[in-house]
Design goal:
By secondary structure, the chain is mainly alpha-helical. It is built from 12 helices and 10 strands. The strands form 5 sheets. A two-stranded antiparallel sheet has the order 1-2. A two-stranded antiparallel ribbon has the order 3-4. A hairpin with a 4-residue loop joins strand 6 and strand 7. Bound molecules: alpha-D-glucopyranose. The site of alpha-D-glucopyranose has 7 residues, from helix 2.
Length: 377
């Protein structure tokens, strides 16, 4: 336990930038600010009882535009990989900021009203600009899901066998043909538009968390409406998981059973569905592995325990799965997720992601969100 807490603290301390108020995920591999990473850092700082929780969460909004949009990256030096702007990305990332703020509030700290206003403006933007007529929210590039090379994108990329290089080429190609508005925000794509189960679940959960911070109001209803749209349109009764929906392009890969399919349990009103999805987190035939939750079941043809988004365990997803099990009161399962997540963090030396069978660290080591291990007590 001491190792977990001391290790988590060390990971964040070593990349902390006092002048900017945040941690780059890894100073060498990821030398900018990433939105959902910083939200997870805030959650980890909060678990460590450190007031930088609020500082890092607030820093996420330094790059918010007047219309509410929060970019998925803020650059520390000029960059144009992710859209026309040299200072920030043109894309978004899953909205974890409301949950981070709610966690800070639950631990007894006061979340300033202006910060809650900025969170609300960010969600307003999402609901206004990225809601499909079906009621689901959509993304226009795989980067926006946070799960860059997920097998769920395979039908778009058109690969029989996973190849990281081809994925990178496809990402660059999609970035070239994304439609950007006059503020250099990505608004549409003629080739890739998707309503991912996980993204929608995180957004609905954000709405629920904001409703708690704001004591009810419109956000509770928005959360319920989005959860209902997910239940109506994305639930796959055979797999007992929520699948993605392709809006432009895509194909059968939207239904590949990845961990994304369980996060509907964060928001659904259907306790039976939640329990059928969540029980797969404790099932060794599905996502339960000795070191954290595998991103896809080892029996899946696409499973590769070492490859980026093709099977390894991810600490931020373990954490959100843990939150979902706690919501449903499955304490035995949440304790087991906590145990294997800590085991993975320690074995991998707080890696970006790790082999779920052996705990061997993969990707950047250490990575800021490895510090989420500090949450589990
Ligand atoms: C990778 C991940 C993304 C994350 C970023 C920084 O691109 O796919 O989710 O935000 O790294 O850690």
């Amino acid at each position: 336990m001491t190792d977990v807490l001391a290790g988590s603290r060390a990971v964040l301390e070593q990349s902390w930038r006092r002048s900017d108020g945040f941690c780059p995920p890894n100073t060498r591999v990821y030398p900018h600010q990433w939105l959902w990473d910083s939200c997870f850092h805030a959650i980890a700082w909060n678990a460590l009882g450190d007031e930088r929780a609020l500082v890092e969460l607030t820093s996420c909004f330094d790059s918010q535009l007047r219309n509410g949009f929060v970019p998925h990256m803020r650059y520390l030096f000029p960059n144009s990989d992710r859209g026309p702007s040299q200072t920030r990305s043109s894309y978004l990332q899953p909205p974890i900021y409301a949950h981070a703020a709610a966690m800070i509030a639950r631990s007894g700290r006061v979340v300033p009203e202006p910060l809650i206003d900025r969170i609300e403006a960010a969600l307003e933007w999402l609901w206004r600009e990225r809601r499909h007529e079906s009621g689901l929210l959509y993304i226009v590039h795989p980067w926006e899901s946070g799960a860059d090379d997920s097998p769920r994108w395979d039908s778009w990329v058109g690969l029989a066998d996973y190849d990281r290089g081809r994925f990178r080429e496809y990402d660059a190609h999609l970035r070239e043909q994304t439609q950007f508005d006059e503020d250099a925000i990505a608004v549409w794509s003629a080739e890739f538009v998707a309503a991912p189960a996980a993204f929608n679940a995180f957004a609905a959960h954000a709405a629920l968390e904001l409703a708690e911070l704001r004591s009810g109001g419109a956000w509770a209803a928005r959360a319920a409406d989005l959860a209902a749209a997910m239940d109506n349109l994305l639930w796959d009764d055979g797999d007992a998981l929520w699948r993605d929906q392709a809006i432009v392009g895509g194909g059968p890969s939207v239904a590949i059973p990845t961990l994304d399919g369980v996060f509907g349990a964060l928001v659904t009103a259907d306790a039976d569905r939640a329990s059928r999805a969540l029980s797969q987190l404790g099932d060794p035939e599905r996502f339960a592995t000795p070191y954290g939750l595998a991103y896809l079941p080892p029996s899946e043809p696409a499973f590769d325990p070492d490859a980026y988004w093709r099977g390894p365990a991810w600490p931020q997803l373990n954490y959100l799965a843990y939150v979902a099990t706690e919501r449903h009161g499955d304490l035995a399962l949440s304790a087991e997720i906590a145990r294997i997540s800590k085991a993975g963090a320690l074995a991998s030396e707080f890696a970006e992601f790790w082999n779920p069978l052996t705990g061997a660290g993969r990707g950047a080591i250490p990575q800021g969100w490895g510090a989420l291990a500090a949450v589990y007590r």
